[in-house]
Design a protein that fits this description.
By secondary structure, the protein is of the alpha/beta class. It is 22% helix and 31% strand. The chain binds inosinic acid and magnesium ion. Magnesium ion binds at residues 40, 43, 98-99.
Length: 176
């Protein structure tokens, strides 16, 4: 990307790693026997991969992809399923692993369709939450960091598919 604006680091790699280890311990404590992590592509890929490295015992993974934003920085409110899960959820302890909860519209959609598949328990882990932008109250049992209303990138989160590779979270507001 030519002329990329300088990015202001909001959460450092060290801060993220420490918090992800804590979240992994919380999830393990609540589902000690086995847990099935459902990661939402693409944004949650880095969070998931760090999370599972901090969990011992039985863990299984699956992936789904949804699209709520195109190239815009705000949600259209329309959620499209791009890739469904490979296996069923019946009787399993399921945790949705998502990068960020913003308006909450994506999460409500996901929770509704996954709950209909009869998991034994359904919880949600989000690395980031922007509560000031919430339009609908989606339950999130595990939140990494609560942040102000900034558009953020890095650690899996993108703007127009860029910046997912950064090991930290940075602010990409218009004025930055
Ligand atoms: P929601 O439906 O508005 O809660 O949006 C959730 C989805 O929008 C997230 O899973 C992200 O993919 C994307 N998103 C929301 N805020 C940001 C942001 O600040 N940076 C990058 N992606 C974001
Ligand atoms: Mg996402």
């Amino acid at each position: 990307m030519p002329d990329a604006p300088p990015l202001e680091i909001l959460l450092s790699e060290q801060q993220i790693q420490k918090r992800v280890a804590e979240l992994a311990a919380d999830i393990r404590r609540d589902s000690p026997e086995d847990v099935h992590l459902v990661a939402v592509l693409k944004g949650a890929f880095m969070f998931l991969s760090d999370l599972v490295r901090h969990m011992d015992g039985a863990v299984t993974l699956d992936f789904m992809a949804v699209s709520s934003y195109s190239k815009a920085k705000t949600s259209s409110g329309e959620v499209r399923m791009l890739k469904d899960l490979d296996s069923g959820l019946q009787g399993r302890h399921v945790v949705i692993v998502e990068d960020i909860v913003d308006t909450g519209l994506t999460l409500i959609y996901l929770q509704e369709i996954l709950r209909a598949r009869s998991p034994k328990t359904l919880r949600t882990a989000c690395l980031l939450s922007k509560p000031s932008r919430r339009q609908i109250d989606a339950a999130v049992e595990y939140i990494g960091f609560t942040i102000e209303d900034h558009f953020v990138v890095g650690y899996g989160l993108d703007f127009a598919e860029q910046f997912r590779n950064l090991p930290y979270i940075a602010v990409l507001d218009d004025e930055s």
